[in-house]
Amino acid sequence: MPSHSHPPFPSSGVERPLVEHLGPVLEAMPIPMLFVDASRRVRLWNRTLALLLDRPAESIAGRTLEDLVDPRDRAGVIETLEPGRSGRTGQVSRLTLPACSGQEMMVTWLELVDNDQIAGWLVRLWSNPPTARLERPLQDMLYHEKALRDKLTALLTVSQTVVQSLDLGTILATITQQVRAVIQVDECTVFMLDERDQMLKPVACDVKSFREEVMGMTLKVGEGITGTVALTGKGEIVNVAESDPRAVQVPGTPEEQAALLCVPLPARERVLGVLTLARIGTRFFVQEDLELATLFAAQCSTAITNARMYEQVKQAYDELREAQAQLVQSAKLTALGEMAGGVAHDFNNILSAILGRTQLLQRGSTDPEMLRQLRIIEQAALDGAMTVRRVQEFTRVRHDERFETLDVNPVLLGVVELTRSAWQTRAKERGIPIEARLDLRSRGTIAGNPSELREVFTNMVLNAVDAMPAGGRLSISSEDVDSELLVRIRDTGTGMDARTKARVFDPFFTTKPVQGTGLGLSVAYGIVTRHHGHITVESEVGAGTEFTVHLPRGQVEGTAQSSPRSQVTPAALRILVVDDEQAVLDVLVDMLAARGHQVEPALGGEAAIAALAKVRPQVVFSDLGMPGLNGWDIAQRVKADLPGTTVVLVTGWGVQLDEASAQRRGVDHILPKPFSIEDIERVLGQLTAAPDRRAVA
């Protein structure tokens, strides 16, 4: 038999949250009680009432109260609960309920108001009331019922606060206020148990005086009456606290006669803390006070548990959101990188044709004016190639820069000297004091490129200086943390809001009105990623910004360099040139032929495979990105059919390819686009093998 019910019939104006709050409150009461809504229908009852019924408790669900009483009493019930009638709170009646074996019972009505409207009545029943109780003066009975109503109202208020709020401070403040008012105590304090050091610490209190002293008090588990309750998990009443040897005086407060009531805050099989109540003077606690305080303690435990769960969920959500933001940032830059890589490839093809033709024309011209014009075109093509290379920084997978075992501290010292004019000389000229502090404690090494990392740190230092228009402090530090080397660059400048912080690594995003391009931090992000690290940023408006560069510690293995190859170009090599772009194919053929080599062109991969057996080349120059058979396919076929033939991969993605990986796939050299005559001569100059290894005729 359920102790209370939520029957599926119309609510008659009673809000569901009110019913949900009342259920646990009614169940906690040791006297028969039920709740009827504004239409006088039974909505809830407790276990004590269920024991009085001579029928299933569910049979009264939804019945009106007048249906449950003797017909002679119905008119009195209707008159008492008539809408608009006042003065029903605390009113005492006598009713006969056939549902309760026809007993005559004394009934008290407690009106409940929700949102300024009558929500219903709490009905309290006494079965077989003793004569003394029946003869008790009405005023005393009303006073008793008013006290009961106040207790129920306080429990309901606390229950609503627990459900509606997840702020632990608000909930605990409400509980202490309600407990002090209802149980009529001078002091109410909630102690929380710190499980790390097993100390009880006040987290909320409602006292007449000495609040700071009470909040500053701490107790060990087992110390004092409060500590004893935390240890045993059982509530206690000590009405003469000063005579109890366990009692502990609150430091800074006078010695007074007091009664203490302490109840634990339970959470399954452990204690979260203790609710401690005090009455100053000769007023004692009784068992009913302990029972009511125990109900409040249960609500307090629920609030603490919910708040902790909320904090855990919130922390997990924040971590998930941060990880998601990093993934989005990475995906965004990856997409930009792929787009940039495709654009760079197409531009490199165009620039290859322009640069190659220009250099060929220069070698065949003696007209000074013509040579001047050609040199202008050549420089423009070279500048375009550098611009394309900067665009390829967004791909974050460049492999044209070799790493070395590196101590970061000298790099940082060099950056400080390199930027000194910005944060010292120019700052002094403008009357802006900028203090630079270094704390270089790292003793580890990394595998990195010093020039690239110098670019990263220089950019961050200059950004920090720009963020302090009124001066401030620039801090640069390095340290070893587990398997990482951390470099922190912090300023005390203007800081960033959340929106700016989220976009700080986006290409072309800048907060500088004139001189900024928005490429600095996005390039830095790419460089650090190529070093297998990452960057984090912490910033707050008005409180400065801190960039932290995380780099994996380690060193470059196998740093011994092989002996340099001869730069003597073998004469009259048989060369097969493969490309799907006619303009690039023609210019490369002409540049090689101008050096005296026997060159065979192949427009596309299929034509190259067909030409292999006929030409039997000593060297193959093949484009990488081609429809059908690409450069990797050509390299594998060449190595399978002509193992002694050298394969040179010509590609607009040259800076993105790992040379070691390319060699494992049959490629001997990589020639990035756009290429010059000098680049071709450098590659051919590395072909030092004996002619019989190249010639397979």
Fold blueprint:
Elements: H1 16-28, E1 33-37, E2 42-45, H2 47-52, H3 65-68, H4 74-80, E3 91-97, E4 103-114, E5 117-127, H5 131-134, H6 138-164, H7 168-182, E6 187-194, E7 199-207, H8 211-215, E8 219-220, H9 224-232, E9 236-238, E10 258-267, E11 270-280, H10 287-363, H11 368-391, E12 404-406, H12 408-418, H13 420-429, E13 434-440, E14 446-448, H14 450-466, E15 472-481, E16 484-491, H15 498-502, H16 520-530, E17 534-540, E18 544-552, E19 574-579, H17 582-593, E20 598-603, H18 605-615, E21 619-623, H19 631-641, E22 646-651, H20 659-664, E23 669-672, H21 677-685, H22 691-694
Parallel strand pairs: 13-15, 19-20, 19-21, 21-22, 22-23
Antiparallel strand pairs: 1-2, 1-5, 3-4, 4-5, 6-7, 6-11, 7-8, 9-10, 10-11, 12-14, 15-16, 16-18, 17-18
Pick out its properties:
disordered C terminus; 22 helices; alpha+beta; 6-stranded antiparallel β-sheet; 697 residues; 23 strands; HisK_dim/P_dom; 5-stranded antiparallel β-sheet; Beta-Lactamase; Helix Hairpins; single chain; coiled coil
Tell me the number of strands.
23
Number of helices: 22
Structurally, the number of domains stands at 5
Main CATH class of the largest domain: Alpha Beta
Percentage of residues in DSSP E strands: 15-25%
Summing up helix and strand content along with how strands pair, one would put the structural category as alpha+beta
In quaternary terms, these chains amount to single chain
EC number: 2.7.13.3
InterPro entries: CheY-like_superfamily, GAF, GAF-like_dom_sf, HATPase_C_sf, HATPase_dom, His_kinase_dom, HisK_dim/P_dom, HisK_dim/P_sf
GO molecular function: ATP binding; phosphorelay sensor kinase activity
Keywords: ATP-binding, Coiled coil, Kinase, Nucleotide-binding, Phosphoprotein, Transferase, Two-component regulatory system
